[in-house]
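Students often ask why we bother predicting the structure of a whole assembly rather than each chain alone. The short answer is interfaces. A chain on its own may look different once its partners are present, and contacts between molecules only exist in the joint model. In this exercise we take two input lines together and write out one structure for the complete complex. Read the inputs first and try to guess which parts will touch.
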Amino acid sequence: MANQTHAPDATVAHTSTALLTDQYELTMLAAALADESAQRTCTFEVFARRLPNGRRYGVVAGTGRLLDALANFRFGADELNIVAKFLDDRTVAWLRDYRFGGDIDGYREGDLYFPGSPILSVRGTFAECVLLETLALSILNHDSAIASAAARMVSAADGRATIEMGSRRTHEQAAPASSRAAYLAGFTATSNLEAVRRYGIPGTGTSAHAFTLLHTDTDGPHEADAFRTQVRALGVGTTLLVDTYDITEGVRIAVEVAGPKLGGVRIDSGDLGVLARQVRKQLDELGATETKIVLSGDLDEHAIAALRVEPVDSYGVGTSLVTGSGAPTAGMVYKLVEVDGVPVAKRSSHKESIGGTKRASRLARSTGTVVEEVVYLAKNPAPDPGGLQVRELMIPLVRSGEKVPDLPDLADARALVAQGLISLPWEGLKLSNGEPAIPTTFVG
Amino acid sequence: MANQTHAPDATVAHTSTALLTDQYELTMLAAALADESAQRTCTFEVFARRLPNGRRYGVVAGTGRLLDALANFRFGADELNIVAKFLDDRTVAWLRDYRFGGDIDGYREGDLYFPGSPILSVRGTFAECVLLETLALSILNHDSAIASAAARMVSAADGRATIEMGSRRTHEQAAPASSRAAYLAGFTATSNLEAVRRYGIPGTGTSAHAFTLLHTDTDGPHEADAFRTQVRALGVGTTLLVDTYDITEGVRIAVEVAGPKLGGVRIDSGDLGVLARQVRKQLDELGATETKIVLSGDLDEHAIAALRVEPVDSYGVGTSLVTGSGAPTAGMVYKLVEVDGVPVAKRSSHKESIGGTKRASRLARSTGTVVEEVVYLAKNPAPDPGGLQVRELMIPLVRSGEKVPDLPDLADARALVAQGLISLPWEGLKLSNGEPAIPTTFVG
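Now the answer. The structure tokens for the assembled complex follow.
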């Protein structure tokens, strides 16, 4: 694809990821090639200075997508045409042969992170590493924001099913990435078909209000016709949406039409807790004791937690999930921390960072409860854990530009989130604003 | 592309947009095909029930992208394989031949909107229209959220240049769409190269702190070397980033290295207003009276407005722009409003809508200041404007499935936003929370 020549066309999907990049990465490259500093050996580090909105932990997500995108970070004829408009010939020639040839270490996808955790460490020449900044941050910031919000929702749902249905409230290509991040964080299923295709996530969905409204004639609405058709087409295990008109009447008709083996009813509006109780009682009285109740409609982790006491079987979450529940970006940065073995760091106000290539480990009690994130310089041995259990957090992801074989996959990442949540001290799962669940200590 | 057969691969860019869709659109289709209601003539309408966060206006954006995506909403072999897992054979066969063949009217891209404005009106059979819900909302909700935030920033910048540099804080494919929406709303340029390629938006960018830090040796940092190289490679008109170490020293070195014809200096941290004043004074004293000051670092519309009194030449805006400055989605919905000529509407609590296919016009005084948005049923004549100027807001976008020729392009949309902001009553441009700038009146 990247080597085809064709007229620019906004509708063409370009396989190359090389232009998903800020222009200044390329002007820096041009300048660095001019004075030979381009060849200096560098480490860039991805980390978050803080967790958003008083969150107590973050979830690393996007690593798998980033490694796929990295393989397509190549400049074909079409990409070179664009950059040639502002770059000198030497730089354009250098880009023609570009592929990342360095090493990347990082946290496992699905691991928790805290302020200062060195989530990704990219090593190679300045030239080959600087180009990856924008792409790496776009993917990690987006996916980690969604996964971090999703994990709080899963935790609040306390074992009940959670369905991601936010596609309509985010960019059309961010939608399948959001589904992936939500599934990674423990969501049960997604409404998004592209996520089903790309990532094999279980798909779900039955009907919207439009389907009920469609069954309207000049003499008025015919909710029963809509339900009857849906059950005939999708089976008695389907979920009927009962709140288009009157909910009590909707439930009555649903069970009348489908019988007591009806799979589920969905309520998308109103005071969801009160309605769930009423509808459960009504369903039970109608003999539909196994019919599940699905709630949706402006749910977030706080609403989910407040509904814990109610007879709910699954939660459908849209807007608040795909917008990170108030934190739509994880705020990670990609910082140069080492040049030819010398630690470097910006000194200007409020944006300090710590120089040097780093490693990290997480310390836990014998019960498995974590107590501290320790970040240390890679040139030093790991600090003495003082009798605590220790887990090294960074694994090799890329060696000499090639993805390391047998990296953890989406299922592994999902399992790791679940383990991570269990490992937190109990305060760490509180939804209220607070300090990070464990402190991060830098050992120089 | 859609008709190629290949193994599922998360890294392949699929040109078909058909799976950027919620599963329930397709199960509703299957059920509607089963009882013939699929062929009923319907109108679906896109509108926002409210403006987010006390905003006073919204900006319609994404229409052009939606019409491009619509042309690729076709089910090839790969898409059919996925949907065949949960759909009956008849529905799959129907999808094989699917193309939208109906009509779409809507607001011009770049026009302002208010609560209840019928931004898009999609007419055709239920089957062909229902499938477009998710894609239409994903695109319009994303792009309108960004454009609506961007317009407030442009308005606050009061004629000074505004640069979109938020790619790293949003999904990698949402980034170029965000650049487009920002440019449409009046931003001057973007850092995102894919937006340069796809939409021809002016690109910009020179260097990050990493480039200065790269010029560090065992004896310490060499800021002057970094500046010298950058000026040599990018010309004296470049913008030097002066806040890696000490800003005053950075400015001194910048002018020493580049001379008084230096294009610009960028400040990315600290108390930006105070620093802008100090740096302007210092630049002027050094004879660099034409050197521009670019500010960046966590700017939003409020910070931009607060900096109006300072000697700033351009603002670089990242996170707050691509996250919609607190409103990352526009919250538009896609509702069935008419079936075979009968108006339909959901009755459940807090989510009422008004049935019937609608049109809209905007009334203005002879000065051009708008006073009211009037929404009326399409079957009725336009209401009497009572001596006010009247502008019909909906134009034909698609006829029998084909995009209408010579639709307004991105430049037209940009001009329309600028006109729209001028047309608002002065309260409409206030950044504080409040009521919509003009009321929306529904004439039944």
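Check your guess against this: Chain A has two domains: 23-146+327-439, 156-326.
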